[in-house]
Write a structure and sequence with these properties.
- By secondary structure, this protein is of the alpha/beta class.
- It is built from 8 helices and 8 strands.
- Strands 1-2-4-3-5-6 form a 6-stranded mixed sheet. It has a two-stranded parallel sheet with strand order 7-8.
- Strand 7, helix 7 and strand 8 form a beta-alpha-beta unit.
- Helix 6 crosses helix 8.
- The chain starts with 8 loop residues before the first strand and ends in an 8-residue tail after the last helix.
Length: 246
């Protein structure tokens, strides 16, 4: 399932919006290792439910500010920015192993990843990685996770421990897995969706509930927009990157 979103458009700040995999195909972002042009590129993966990366949030603001430099700086004019709605472009997200938002990929002209940022709350590393990309004069790049990626992952783990404390001494992941297993087995049919059956928050969640209702079957549901731990954890548990899930 995927939600239906607005068509591809080019923003005034030189950011190309990628609203789905169709847009990614049109921009040649799914072709081999190329990013679709001979420029260095920044891919900014975001989600509507994630306020810091949504329109007007700090990550959105810094991305637009950096992209705006394209119009005034000849040294950075060879960098193309893409703003990717992560859950609605699952093929592109899988290609780059995107499992959280925001995710930033800083890509050389030959399509190799120079550095990346996965998650976090600090926008400073975005500017630092962008400067590194602009100043890079080599197309050779490391494909391993950057130190920024490693640093950003640590707060997320600490946050999970705070959200899911375990008085019995199990690890946080074990506790989350137990909770997910309980949710999945709580009913013969469980729909993990955005919103509720009466008020779905995306087109494909609405379509899923309509199909189930038309089939005259009873089902339980879970609103993943109300629980970020479940929303993130279920993707790994079920090995599927988007919602809804049945």
């Amino acid at each position: 399932f995927r939600t239906i979103l607005p068509n591809h458009n080019i923003m005034s700040t030189s950011i190309i919006d990628i609203a789905n995999d169709g847009d990614a195909t049109d921009a040649s972002l799914l072709d081999g290792i190329s990013t679709g042009n001979n420029k260095k590129s920044v891919l900014f993966f975001w989600a509507e439910w994630h306020s810091p990366s949504n329109t007007g949030g700090p990550f959105d603001t810094v991305a637009k500010a950096l992209a705006g430099q394209q119009q005034t700086s000849s040294s950075s004019g060879s960098v193309q920015f893409y703003r990717v709605l992560a859950e609605e472009a699952p093929n592109l997200s899988r290609k780059h192993n995107v499992t959280t938002v925001p995710t930033f990929l800083f890509i050389n002209a030959d399509g190799t990843v120079l550095s990346r940022i996965d998650g976090g709350e600090d926008v400073a590393p975005v500017t630092q990685c962008y400067s590194k990309l602009v100043n890079s004069n080599s197309t050779a790049a490391t494909t391993s996770s950057s130190s920024t990626d490693q640093n950003q992952s640590q707060p997320s783990q600490q946050q999970q421990q705070q959200e899911a404390p375990n008085s019995k001494g199990k690890t946080t992941q074990q506790t989350l897995d137990d909770r997910l297993r309980s949710l999945v087995t709580s009913s013969p049919i469980v729909l993990f969706q955005k919103g509720t059956p009466d008020a779905p928050r995306c087109g494909f969640s609405r379509q899923a509930t309509e199909i189930l209702a038309a089939s005259d079957v009873s089902f339980a549901y879970f609103d993943i927009t109300e629980d970020d731990e479940v929303r993130r954890g279920l993707k790994s548990y079920s090995d599927w990157p988007t919602y809804p899930q049945l």
